[in-house]
Specification:
- The termini are far apart.
- Strands 4-3-2-1-5 form a 5-stranded antiparallel sheet, with no helix packed on it.
- It has 1 helix and 5 strands.
- By secondary structure, it is of the alpha+beta class.
- A hairpin with a 5-residue loop joins strand 3 and strand 4.
Length: about 80
C-alpha cells in the first residue's frame, strides 16, 4: 500500500511540474510576441528572417533583405532581435 501511494505522489508531482512549465513557457512566448516593434528583426519558425514594417492586432508585416514583404501571424515569430542590433 505505501508503495502505491508513493507512486501516485510521484505521478501527481510530475503532472503538476508539466502544467506549470507549460504555463511559464506560454507566458514567455506571449510576452515576446507582445514586445514586437516596428524595426525589430525577427526570425519566423519557418526560418524566414526579416524586419517588422507594420503591426496589427493578430498579424505583422515583415520585409526580407531582398525587399519581399510578407504578412504573417504573430504566432509565427520564433525569435526577436531588439531594435538596433
Amino acid at each position: 500500500m505505501p508503495v502505491d501511494l508513493l507512486l501516485l505522489a510521484v505521478f501527481v508531482l510530475m503532472v503538476v511540474f508539466l502544467i506549470t512549465s507549460n504555463r511559464r513557457r506560454r507566458k514567455e512566448v506571449e510576452a515576446m510576441q507582445s514586445s514586437l516593434e516596428v524595426g525589430s528583426k525577427v526570425t519566423l519558425h519557418a526560418g524566414i528572417v526579416g524586419t517588422v514594417t507594420k503591426l496589427d492586432e493578430d498579424e505583422i508585416e515583415i520585409e526580407s533583405v531582398k525587399g519581399t514583404k510578407l504578412r504573417v501571424l504573430r504566432g509565427a515569430v520564433g525569435k526577436i532581435a531588439p531594435v538596433g542590433e
